[in-house]
Design a protein that fits this description.
elongated; 3 helices
Length: 50
């Protein structure tokens, strides 16, 4: 994901893409990890089930 964000940053800097799009991708980077950590802490899933 970091590689893609670096590539996307170059596109934003050249004016190809909007700055808001880059912000969206940077926010979305951690969402899957936060989701899994949230459910693992609640004990809904075991570590072997993921």
């Amino acid at each position: 994901m970091n590689t893609y964000n670096e590539f996307f940053t170059k596109r934003v800097n050249t004016g190809e893409r909007a700055t808001a799009s880059l912000q969206k991708y940077k926010r979305a980077k951690g969402l899957p990890f936060e989701f899994h950590r949230h459910y693992l802490q609640k004990g809904r899933y075991g570590e072997t089930e993921i």
